[in-house]
Structure formats: C-alpha cells, structure tokens
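Sequence, please.
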C-alpha cells in the first residue's frame, strides 16, 4: 500500500521551505528599498509588479474574449513623491514556485539567482546597468519637473 502520509509530509516540508525562500527574497527587496530611500531621499521605490504583455495578437485575443490578457512580472521603480506615478520596468522577473531559483532578465541577459547572495549580486548588476540608471534618473528628474511646475504656478498667483 502506498504511504500517502509520507508524501503529504514531504509536500508540507517543501511548502515551508518555499515560504522561507520567498520571505528571504522579500527581505532582500526590503533592504534594497531601505538603501534606495537613503540614496534618493525617499523618492524611489522598487518592487515586483505585474505588467500586461503588449502585442497585437494578445490584445486581439483579449478583445475577442478568446483568452485573458497575458501578464508578466517585472522589477520596476516609481517615484513615491509624484502622485499617481506609474511604475517603470527595469527588468523582467521570474520566480520558481520554490522561491529559488529566481531570474532577473535584462534585455537578453538572464541572471540566475540560486540563493540570497546571488540575488543580491544580480540586483547590484541590475542597478549598475546604464539603461536602468537612466530610468531611475528620469524618475528622480520627475520631482524636479513637478517642483518647477509648482514654483511657476506660485508665481502666477
């Protein structure tokens, strides 16, 4: 007779490990955001966000109710000081059902993260990329533009 209890215990143990891995990943992003707060005076926030796939075929299939609109997850940043600021995608993000491995996809470069250390190193690589730096710079510049618009409006009063 098959010992189903043994397999249930295995599944429960795997679920606990996956939960611990995901909590560890969340803690890395929390640390990232604490340091981003310090570096940007609380302006930039980075999160994992779902985006819709933009393609004519996906849009047509969604409109025709043939299938739900496709989504993907990305690491994205926004300026918290700008009301209704939308997230800007920095890289695509994939996470295994066990938490690890997770993958940061920047253009054609796939950075595999097998553990906390490799996740931290790959997030460092992501932040040091010139295109990502430009995206964050543009988000930071939004504050200056919004403040300048506010100053101009004050002069008109």
């Amino acid at each position: 007779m098959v010992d189903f209890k043994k397999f249930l215990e295995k599944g429960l143990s795997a679920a606990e490990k996956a939960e611990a891995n995901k909590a560890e990943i969340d803690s890395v992003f929390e640390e990232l955001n604490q340091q981003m707060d310090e570096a940007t005076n609380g302006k930039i926030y980075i999160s994992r966000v779902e985006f819709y796939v933009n393609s004519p075929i996906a849009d047509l299939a969604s409109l025709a109710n043939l299938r739900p609109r496709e989504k993907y997850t990305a690491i994205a940043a926004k300026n918290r000081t700008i009301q209704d600021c939308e997230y800007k995608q920095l890289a695509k993000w994939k996470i295994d059902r066990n938490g690890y491995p997770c993958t940061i996809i920047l253009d054609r470069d796939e950075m595999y993260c097998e553990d906390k250390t490799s996740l931290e190193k790959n997030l460092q690589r992501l932040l040091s990329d010139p295109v990502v730096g430009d995206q964050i710079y543009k988000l930071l510049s939004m504050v200056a533009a919004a403040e300048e618009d506010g100053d101009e409006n004050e002069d008109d009063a």
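The chain has one domain: 10-150.
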